[in-house]
Specification:
Blueprint: E1 8-13, H1 19-32, E2 38-41, H2 47-57, H3 66-90, E3 95-98, H4 101-111, H5 116-126, E4 134-139, H6 142-150, H7 163-179, E5 184-188, H8 193-208
Parallel strand pairs: 1-3, 1-4, 2-3, 4-5
Helix pairs in contact: 1-8, 2-3, 3-5, 4-5, 4-7
This protein binds adenosine-5'-diphosphate and magnesium ion (MG).
EC number: 2.7.4.9
GO molecular function, one term: dTMP kinase activity
GO cellular component, one term: cytosol
């Protein structure tokens, strides 16, 4: 019997878009289809990546420059791809990842103004050709997302940025979704959690067709 490659599904979106909430719902949905997904996140997902996460989200590290932030995100990603994602996909596992390379284009590119061609160079080199099968972009007004995220407690180093920063991130995400309609699925994240899960389930439905039990 042929061993089939797993599937990589990434969730993207701004602060408070509902990515973590949707991930738990998707895990149950996939399990109902006989798939036990590997769940991971960025930055993080490995011991090295979680150490990087602690640095980049530390609100007291205001000195971290945009170039270092970009490189740290890719350091975490390079480790996650090699240690977790690529081996899982090769073993036929489905992977659900809370943010991936698109987040660098949105946050470090759109948000921080780092050049897109530099980010693309890092993607080619550090991510080694790992591209998501489907990317769910949870889109919602910045103010709605920020109001939700505010309920989570103290803001991290990125959450303290001004609204204009998050507007640029939203624009960059939407531009990437428009440029790659085959991979992206735009989700109306201002809907109720159940409605968001229903949209995501519909977006993933075509992938279930290829699964044999
Ligand atoms: N569709 C939704 N409608 C209303 N509130 C939501 C929705 N999805 C998530 N939330 C709430 O908003 C907050 C942020 O959600 P979360 O899933 O942590 O977002 P993210 O991981 O994208 O930052 C949480 O308190 C969560 O319960
Ligand atoms: Mg989250």
């Amino acid at each position: 019997m042929p061993i089939t490659r797993g599937r990589l599904i990434t969730l993207e979106g701004g602060e408070g878009a509902g990515k973590s909430t949707l991930l738990s719902g998707l895990r149950e949905l996939l399990r109902a289809h006989g798939i036990d997904p590997l769940m991971t996140r960025e930055p993080g997902g490995t011991p090295v990546g979680e150490a990087v996460r602690a640095v980049v989200l530390d609100a007291s590290r205001s000195e971290l420059c945009p170039e270092a932030e970009l490189l740290l995100m890719f350091a975490s990603r390079a480790q996650l791809v090699r240690e977790v994602i690529a081996p899982a996909l090769a073993a036929g596992r489905w992977v659900l990842c809370d943010r991936f390379t698109d987040a660098s284009y949105a946050y470090q590119g759109g948000g921080r103004g780092q050049p897109v061609d530099r980010i693309a160079e890092l993607e080619n080199w550090a991510v080694a050709g790992v591209v998501p099968d489907i990317t769910l972009l949870l889109d919602l007004p910045v103010s709605t997302g920020r109001a939700r995220a505010a309920g989570r407690g103290e803001a991290d180093r990125i959450e303290v940025e001004a609204d204009a920063f998050f507007e640029r991130i939203r624009d960059a995400y939407r531009a990437r979704a428009a440029a790659e309609p085959g991979r992206f699925r735009l989700i109306d994240a201002s809907a109720t959690p159940d409605a968001v899960l229903a949209q995501a389930g519909a977006a993933l439905a075509p992938l279930f067709g290829g699964v044999t039990s």
